[in-house]
Amino acid sequence: SFFPCSYISALLENEESPSLQQAVNSGWPASLHLIGKDILRFHAVYWPAMLMSAGLTLPKMVFGHGFLTKDGMKMGKSLGNTLEPKDLVHRFGADAVRYFFLREVEFGNDGDYSEDRFINIVNAHLANTVGNLLNRTLGLLKKNCQSTLPFDSMAAAEGNPFKDTVEKLVESSEVPL
To answer: Where does the Methionyl/Leucyl tRNA synthetase domain start and stop, copy by copy (predicted)?
Structure first.
């Protein structure tokens, strides 16, 4: 069937002589099919039917994400109010951009970007709260520990149970990280 070819061919952008078999072998089936909520019906009903007709495995999960608005308005090229992620990262740094969107846009729901709110949240949470904590911690290290972290031989002997637990969870995860 020709239906899934344009979707799956995205897996082969850098291939010299792409084929459907190469695409299937290089990343299909998808564990998660993440799409906009406005096309959920197509991708949860029609797309799986096309995959089945082509004899291809279905994604394990289809998730429709919310929309991102800017200053309370729908974004669009014709409206001239789109966001360029590279510009945001260049201006504010990747960590600040990640923090804002992870904090402000609940997965699955719509979210709104406003530059004023972005700056206020980054300043209040990252610069003030986290920055003050880091500054105080470094001051205590300088005052009490000659600016070095003390070595805890007991903790080193016991290993790192938190790290071990996280590694086990990542290894057992069905969704690629």
So the answer is: 5-138
Parallel, antiparallel, or unpaired for β 32-36 and 61-65? parallel
Distance CA 130, CA 134 (A): 6
In sequence order, which residues have a C-beta less than 8 Å from that of residue 114 and are 6 or more positions away?
70, 71, 72
Other CB atoms closer than 10 Å to residue 125's CB: what's the count?
15
Give pLDDT tens digits for 140-176.
888 888 777 766 666 666 777 777 777 887 777 654 4
Q: Compute the distance between CA of residue 95 and CA of residue 89 in angstroms, rounded to an integer.
A: 8
The partner residues of 63 in beta bridges, in order of sequence, read 34
pLDDT at position 87, please?
94
Best CA proximity match to 97, nearest among 118, 127, 76, 66: 118
Identify whether the C-beta of residue 98 lies closer than 8 Å to the C-beta of residue 125: no
Low-confidence ranges of the chain (pLDDT < 70): 1-28, 150-157, 173-177
Q: What is the pLDDT of residue 58?
A: 86
Q: Which residues, 6 or more positions from 38, have their beta carbon under 8 angstroms from its beta carbon?
A: 67
Whole-structure pTM value: 0.58
Six-digit token string for 11: 């897996």
Cα of first residue to Cα of last residue in the chain, in angstroms, is 31
